[in-house]
Amino acid sequence: MKQKILIVEDEFIVANDLRIMLEKAGYKVCGIAPSVIKALELISTKEPDWILLDIFLQGDKTGIDLAGQLTEMGIPFIYISANTNQGILEAAKATLPHGFLVKPFREKDLMVMLDIARYRQEQNLKYNQHTEPSFHKQIEYIVEKQEPVSERLKQISTVLHPVVPFDFLWITKSNPRTTTKDINIVRSPDGKFNTLNNETLLKEIKVSNRDFKTWNSTALVHNGKSIFNGYDFRKLRMESPWVQALSDHYRLESALVTEINRNDELFQFVFFNHLSDLYTKVHTGVINQFKKSLELILDQVIYRKDITVEIPAPTLPAVEELIVKRENPEIPKDFHGIIGNSTLLHAAFKKLELVAPDDTSVLILGESGTGKEKIAQTIHKLSPRKNKPLITVNCAALPLTLIESELFGHEKGAFTGANEKRIGKFEQADGGSIFLDEIGELPFEAQVKLLRVLQEKEIERLGGNYTKKINVRIITATNRNLEKEVSDGRFRLDLYYRLNVFPIELPTLRQRKEDIPALATYFIYKYGKKSSSAVTGISTEALHKLQLYDWPGNIRELEHLMERTILLTEGETITKVDLPNPTSTTGFSDDDHFKIKTMEEMEREHILNILKMCKGKIFGAGGAAEILNIPSTTLNSKIKKLGIKFEFVK
Fold first, then answer.
1. In angstroms, rounded to a whole number, what is the distance separating the alpha carbons of residues 375 and 257?
2. How many alpha carbons lie under 13 Å from residue 632 in its C-beta half-sphere?
3. What is the DSSP letter of 146?
4. Which of 416, 532, 536, 549 lies at 20 to 30 Å from 309 by C-alpha?
5. Strand 99-102 and strand 168-175: pairing?
C-alpha cells in the first residue's frame, strides 16, 4: 500500500513540485495545506502517514506550533525550510522531527531524506523514543535536583537558551503584582549564565530602589503582543522605564514575552536579546509547546515555599573508606569497565543496554575526556557482533588527501603512490562495527560519500569499477555541536539526521562529582600497582579539593592528575593535589598553573594571532601562510575547519 503524505506548504510552486516528485517516486499525496488550520482539517479527514512541513506558513501559527500536535498524534514529519540558521535548527530539533530538508532541494535529496526519516521512525517505534520531548525531560531532571536554586537556574538557562536564545531573562509575578521574587538571569560574553537578585541588579545598572518600585508598580503591558523587534521594542522602551534601564545597560534590542497562569496567578517570562530582529513566530511556537516546562520551573524552582532552603553538601567518605589494599583490592564496582554510580551516568548506561543488541546507528555526544570511546567499545562488546572486529577511526587524524582511501580503500595504481591494493576501514569492519570518532571533523566532501555508504550499504574502492556490499554497524562520536556545524555549512544536514538516530549523551565530570571518590580509588589502585609507589589512599581534604574543581578535561584530566600525584606522593596517603586555578581564564593562572587547552584550541588561537598580525592577509609575501610555513590552501582549510571568521581577525 502506498504511503500517504500531506504537504503543509504555503508556496504553491514549491508544494506542487513536491507533489510531482513524490508521486513519481510512488507516494500518494493526500493534500496540500497552506496553513496550520487547513492542515489539521486534512489530517482529520485524510489520515496521512507522513507530513512534509514548512516552518513559516499562512496565518498566526507556524510549523513549529503544528509539530507539537503531530507528536501527540503520533504522526511523523519532516521539516522543509529555506532557513537553516542555528536558532531555527535548535527550535526545530526540540520538536523531534524525523528530518529537515533545506530549500531549494533536488529530487534525490528528498528521496534520501525520506529514506532516513523512515529509518528513524522504525528505530523510534522500537525504542519508544518519542513519548515525550527531550527538552521537557531535561527540565524535569534539573528541577528535581537537590541543589541550590541559583545553580539549577543556571542549568535550566543552558538548556533553554538554544531553543529560545536570550541575553537577559526576567521572570516576574504580574498579577497580583509583586517584585519580591523576581528572577534575573544574564548571559555573559563567554556564554555562562548568572542569576542576580534585585538588589545586586539595581547596584549594577545604577537604579535607585525608589525608581525601581515606581517603575515596577504595574506589570509589563504588552496588549497581547509577544514579539518586540525594531520599532516595537523602541516603543516598549518608551512605555517602560525599567525595560529602558535594562536595555541601556545590557545593550538589549529585542524582546519576547510569554505569560503563564498558575492557580489564578499570572507570571511573565520576558526574554531579551542583543539582536534587533531575532524573535519570530517560531519562538512563540516553541514557547507554546513547552509551557509545561515553564510551569514546572515556576512550581518547583522559583516560587516553591522552600526556595530559600539550601541543601547541604554531601558528606565525603572518610579516608579509611578509600584505602586500597594491594593484596586484597576493593575496587569500585563498574559497568563493563566504566566506573560511576551517578544518576546521569546510569541514564547513559540504560540507553547503552537498550541499543547495544541491535544494529541501530548510535551517536555518542560529550566533551573531550568523558569516555566516548569506552562507550563505543561497550556497545560493540554487548552486541551480537562482539566476535567480529570493531574498527576505530579518528576522523580528526585522517590526512585530508587520504580520507577516501583510508575509509573505503583503493586499487593498485588508483593514484600516484598507490603501489598496492588497500583494504579500507569499512571493509575491515565488515560483519562487525566501525567507530567514527570526532565525526564532526570529517571534511564536507567526504561526508557526501559516507552518507551514500550508509544508505546503500556498499563501498567502492578508489580506482575500482565495482561496488562491494558491506554489513557494518555505525557508531559515531563528537564533542562538537553538530547543529551549529550544520548551520555554519560545515556538516551535512541529511548526514546529521542519519547519524543522530539514537544519541547517548555522556555527562561531564563536573556534572557527576559524586563519582570522583570511586574514580580516585580506582586510579590509586591502577597506578599504584604499576609503579613502586606506596600510596594506598587519599585524605578527605585532598578529596574535597578534587570535588571543588570543575575538570574541563573531564575523566582524562583526573586520571593524568592522579597518576602524577601518586608519583610525587611520599608515604601511603595522598594529602595534597596540585590543581590549576579554576577561576583563571588566561593561559596561566595567578599562581602560574597552566590552564589545560585542547590542541584544536591552541591551534585556533595561534592562527588567529598570526592573522591579526598580518591584518587578515593569507596569500603572498608577509601573509599568514608564509609566516606559518604552510601552503595557503592548507591554511584556508584550517581556517574553515576551526570556524575562524573575518570579523574575529579585526
1. 42
2. 10
3. S
4. 549
5. unpaired
The residue with cell 541543589 is: 147
User: Which residues on adjacent β-strands are paired with residue 139?
Assistant: none
Comparing CA positions, the residue from 587, 583, 510 lying closest to residue 546 is 510
Please tell me the predicted confidence (pLDDT) of residue 331: 53
> Mind giving me the DSSP string for 116-136?
HHHHHHHHHHHHTGGGS-HHH
143 SS3 class: helix
Q: How many CB atoms lie within 10 A of CB 636?
A: 13
Q: Torsion angle of alpha carbons 285, 286, 287, 290, nearest 10°?
A: 120
Tell me whether residue 53 is exposed, middle or buried, using C-beta atoms within 10 angstroms of its C-beta: 0 to 12, 13 to 18, 19 or more: buried
The owner of cell 536558532 is: 87
End-to-end CA distance of the chain: 60
Half-sphere exposure of 422 (CA within 13 A, CB side): 20
Q: Please tell me whether the peptide bond between 580 and the residue prior to it is cis, using omega within 30 degrees of 0.
A: no
**CB-based contacts of 312, cutoff 8 Å, min separation 6:** none
Spatial separation of the C-alpha atoms in residues 206 and 368, rounded to whole Å: 41
Integer Cα distance of 153 and 159 in angstroms = 10
For residue 174, the SS3 value is strand
Q: Which of 583, 587, 605 is nearest to 596 (CA)?
A: 587
Contact 477, 500 (CB under 8 A): no
Write down the mean pLDDT value for the chain: 84
- The pLDDT, as a whole number, for residue 589 is 41
Give the pLDDT confidence of 253-275 residue by residue, as tens digits: 999 999 999 888 889 999 999 98
For the entire predicted model, the pTM comes to 0.68
CA–CA distance, 38 with 549 (Å, rounded to integer): 55
Q: Tell me phi and psi for residue 568, to 5 degrees.
A: -90, -10
Identify residue 184 by its one-letter amino acid code.
N
3-state secondary structure of 382: coil
Could you tell me the pLDDT band of residue 324, with boundaries at 50, 70 and 90? very low
- Provide the pLDDT for residue 393: 93
- Where do we find the cell 555526544? 365
Angle between the N-to-C axes of helices 134-143 and 149-160, in degrees from 0 to 180, rounded to the nearest 10? 170
- Give yes or no for a contact between 252 and 274, defined as CB atoms under 8 angstroms apart: yes
HSE toward the beta carbon, residue 508, CA cutoff 13 A:
13
At 365 the pLDDT is: 93
Cα separation, 260 vs 207, in Å, equals: 28
